[in-house]
Design a protein that fits this description.
Layout (H helix, E strand, L loop, with lengths): L1 H5 L8 H9 L1 H9 L2 H26 L1 H37 L3 H27 L5 H27 L9
Helix pairs in contact: 2-3, 6-7
Amino acid sequence: MAAWADFPNIDTKSAEELEELLNDDLALQIYIDNLESIRGMKQVHKELLDGNESLARRNLEQQTELESLKATVAEQQALFITQRAKFDASLKAQQDESVRFSPAHIVTKLQSSLTESDDLSESISQSFLDGKVQPDDFIKQYRDTRRVYHLRAAKLERVARDPTLLHGAG
């Protein structure tokens, strides 16, 4: 029964007409092409083709704009990469510089300077003992060097007693 619905008028055809459809490919093709469902399917197919062609034309019309936008995006990406590299370099430089002001670095530098002052005063003493420095020059140099040593030692002791003094520095 479903076959009759798909092929209307087939039951009204005579045996000769049916025989002709079976033997003549052109007659069969004409019969099939005239079926309502086939005409509807062909119409839908044509509409889909026309719609696809229209979409393709619109896409092609927008291709130059798309290429321009792609070029702009590529330029912006290159600019971003350049700017990001500059930013990263600046950030690293800032971090490297900020280490100099960290409490631990300040204490280390103060200890190092204290040792330098002590070594310098010992060197001045040795020069005096070796006769390379006059007494008046020795007294002035030694006194100045020891004054710096004691100032640095006092600062180091003060920081050791109250480590919060350097928290504003880092």
